What does this fold into?
Amino acid sequence: MRYNYFNKPLKEQNKMADKRKVGTVCVQGGYTPGNGEPRQIPIIQSTTFKYATGEAMGKLFDLEASGYFYSRLQNPTCDTVAAKICELEGGSAAMLTSSGQAASFYSIFNIASCGDHIVSSASIYGGTYNLFAVTMKRMGIEFTFVSPDCSDEELEKAFKPNTKAVFGETIANPALTVFDIERFADAAHKHGVPLIVDNTFATPVNCRPFEFGADIVTHSTTKYMDGHGAAVGGCIVDSGKFDWTKYPDKFPGLCTPDDSYHGVTYTERFGLSGAYITKATAQLMRDFGSVQSPQNAFILNLGLESLHVRMKRHCENAERIAKYLENHEKIAWVNYPSLESSPYYDLAKKYLPNGSCGVVSFGVKGGREAAQAFMGKLKIAAIETHVADARSCCLHPASTTHRQMSDEELTNAGVPSDLVRLSVGLEDADDLIADIEQALN
Ligand SMILES: *Cc1c(COP(=O)(O)O)cnc(C)c1O
It folds into this structure.
């Protein structure tokens, strides 16, 4: 089922994954044109695909043959870009979604339904927290949130007999905590469930969660992968390593026949490498339709072509700024995982040896008013509710995204009222530092 435009199975392309380095995959992964074929990936702007006989088409509907029939389920441009991200993460299969939110939702709803339970890190993106704690709760899926720094005992206690997965973010947005992937993977596997990791902030350039035992990776491609603030999108990648068939009672959707596809059993027909993504495409995309447009996939691919170059620069700039801020008399504190003073420095060294991300948070002395006044004086970094863009931007959560909270609630939530979140862009670091300096003065 997972074929790209020139009908090369993903698995075959991924055989090259071990041999190619991440930079080469960023530029060339997912698409290898033949003689006289377009150098850039074609945008297949077509909702539907033609077949000669009804019989041939019927086979597609029974998942007996592979091919495209309707872009709500699959589109060749999107699959080409998914194949690149799949290879970047070292996975077995991948799919694009319309947004990061859709990727987070599908990644869990594909293996959990009403009456099930999920263990999630409490340090996650606010939108994901809302999706889990409010919307998916209304669907009958219960979440237990644990601190990423919780004790082994607390983590153990979070599991229930109906737990179906564990979820966390490599580097959490906006708290910048670093997730101990190996530790959470071990706990998940001990309980016979997969670990799902949102790898948005690190990107596969800085961390490949599958190498540390994660089973499924999700992305908001809206952030560094696109990297230019141009296209909202998401992606789900499966490692193909989690053995669903060992726990058929836990994962009946993957291990028993699907009546909506003539009784196909995903793990039997598609193996461990393809079952999870095929089910998410064939069932969830069919029914919810959160597809990425081929246009957006094309824009995303342009971003991916320079991801390895941009991540390096984002991290260099952010590190310089974090160090500068740390030594500034008007700054109360700085939070950046690659700083030696960070409580996550050791985890960052292990999981993010080449750099973490471009986001730095810090407190301005003088609290809420000082933070707001400082931001108003910045000339290069714009005030936006966005991160991971080529252009530097900043946000004061206490007066915007979290403005309904009291100062005490803000402190408890890990976003004190003096916190400024700075997403460091690709500009010249000298200019960024000069801008911060004049704003602080
Ligand atoms: C932004 C973000 C999301 C949500 O992605 P959208 O593309 O905005 O839907 C999910 N996880 C993380 C870590 C994010 O930063």
Observations:
- Residues 1-9 have pLDDT under 50 and may be disordered.
- The longest strand covers residues 163-169.
- Residues 72 and 288 are 9 Å apart (CA to CA).
